[in-house]
Specification:
By secondary structure, the chain is of the alpha/beta class. The protein has two domains: 4-126; 148-388 and 401-418, Peptidase S8/S53 domain (Rossmann fold). Helices cover 29% and strands 21% of the residues. The protein has helices at residues 4-13, 17-20, 67-79, 108-116, 152-157, 159-162, 208-218, 256-268, 284-295, 355-372, 379-387, 407-417, 422-425; strands at 35-41, 58-59, 62-63, 82-90, 95-102, 123-126, 172-177, 191-196, 235-240, 243-244, 252-253, 273-276, 299-303, 319-323, 327-329, 333-335, 340-344, 348-352, 397-401. The longest helix has 18 residues, at 355-372. Residues 1-9, 11-24, 45-61, 390-398 and 421-432 have low confidence and may be disordered.
Length: 432
């Protein structure tokens, strides 16, 4: 037998023209007789012999099979009940390779073992199959939005899988923030409306924070543009109550008067979810408005802040969202909050950090659960779905970082609570 390296080169040569025209199927699992590769010595001579004596191994058209190799090929085929499928001479190895079908029904390993001991044969082996090193049968990308791969927050939250169930359709979210760039290409087609409660005219530079939050919640999915929102089919009502403090900076401010008007308007509009991605001092008027909303069954989500900024998260019943990258107080819900890709005014994109980000993400996750449920979900039920059977009371500082909420586990709990009610809610779930 020739060295095994010759077998590899024999198979590589199969990519050449002589073999390309022949079927490359190994025969396995197709009903076709199994196929093997057999090589015969086809040594070049020191000088061409007289015409007709040994056959031509070299000619103007290239390397060819000699008479002895031809005879051995035919006799081996006859002795082992083989049918030739394709052949090709390999000058580099001084071999002539042949693909045979085994017509006798004998097992491949048995035929190859016998051929390997046959003095007429230089090499015998199965016709093997090889594969490229891509993920065989890999699913297509979840979205066609070109920046989706940069949205690591969506992977952490399991949003692609959750979107197979719900995308926020039918849920009304109030975003109380700065204004939003409604003309951003990634918000065109979103269910987005805006009202302003500030006297100063909004400019593009005063829309940064609100646009970023709106993008996290509602950027249109599968529009071949930018990013994917967590609840892209939710209806977003923007209540502009804050103003940017400086161009090119997300810092913004609001006051009791603008926020009170915005919260009252959100409640009057029938909002089911209210996102409050800001914090400040305790405020009796604003607290009374939030408490009135809670009694009506409205869910409020606020951003975690220090003890010097207790509004709104110190109000009992308001959900507190914190970043998964930092230690958090027990009883809060975690979401990625560092370097999260979102929208900027003027059709731009950038990374945003802060507990405001976590609040917008948790608000959007709540919208997915509301959209998937056949019944109205209370704030307590939403928190229970996202935290499991036991909810730790707020107050104690956790030593470890906050884990992200698991929306898919919450959806599974929701199904269990409704007897596996996937079918019951299918009509409310918009297709991806």
């Amino acid at each position: 037998m020739r060295p095994f390296a010759r077998a590899a080169l024999c198979l590589l040569a199969a990519a050449g023209g002589a073999f390309a025209a022949a079927p490359g199927d190994t025969g396995a699992g197709t009903g076709t007789p199994p196929r093997i590769v057999v090589a015969f010595a086809n040594e070049p001579l020191a000088a061409p012999g007289p015409a007709g004596t040994t056959g031509t191994r070299y000619a103007g058209t290239g390397y060819r099979i000699g008479q002895s190799a031809e005879r051995e090929k035919r006799s081996v085929a006859s002795d082992y009940a083989l049918r030739e499928v394709a052949n090709w001479p390999i000058q580099l190895l001084s071999m002539h390779c042949v693909v045979f079908e085994i017509r006798s029904g004998r097992p491949v390993d048995e035929v190859v073992a016998a051929l390997s001991k046959d003095s007429r044969v230089a090499l015998a082996q199965p016709l093997q199959e090889f594969h490229t090193l891509t993920a065989a049968g890999a699913a297509p990308p979840a979205y066609n939005d070109p920046l989706y791969d940069l949205q690591t927050n969506l992977s952490s939250l399991g949003i692609a899988r959750a979107h197979q169930r719900a995308q926020g359709a039918g849920v009304r979210i109030a975003l109380i923030d700065t204004g939003v760039d409604l003309d951003h290409p990634d918000l065109r087609g979103a269910k987005l409306h805006s009202r302003s409660f500030i006297e100063r005219a909004a400019s593009a530079t005063s829309l940064r924070h609100g646009t970023a939050m709106a993008g996290l919640i509602a950027a249109v999915a599968n529009n071949h543009i930018g990013i994917v929102g967590i609840a892209p089919r939710a209806q977003i009502e923007v209540f502009e109550a804050c103003w940017q403090l400086a161009p090119g900076n997300d810092a913004a401010a609001c006051n009791t008067f603008t926020l009170a008007r915005a919260i009252a308007a959100a409640l009057a509009a029938g909002s089911q979810l209210v996102n409050l991605s800001f914090a400040g001092p305790a405020d009796p008027l604003l607290t009374a408005l939030v408490q009135a909303g809670l009694k009506r069954g409205v869910t409020f989500v606020g951003a975690a802040a220090g003890t010097d900024a207790p509004f709104p998260t110190a109000i009992a019943g308001v959900i507190t969202a914190s970043g998964t990258e930092q230690p958090a107080r027990a009883g809060t819900l975690g979401a990625p909050a560092q370097h999260v890709l979102t929208l900027r005014p003027g059709g731009e994109y950038d990374f945003e950090s802060g507990s405001s980000v976590a609040a917008a993400e948790i608000t959007a996750v709540m919208a997915l659960l509301m959209s998937a449920s056949p019944t109205k979900l209370s704030t307590e039920t939403l928190v229970s779905l996202l935290t499991g059977p036991s909810v730790v009371q707020a107050g104690a500082l956790q030593a470890d970082t906050q884990p992200p909420v698991d929306v898919n586990a919450a959806l599974a709990r929701l199904d269990a609570a409704h007897g596996g009610g996937v079918a019951a809610v299918a009509a409310r779930v918009a297709p991806p």
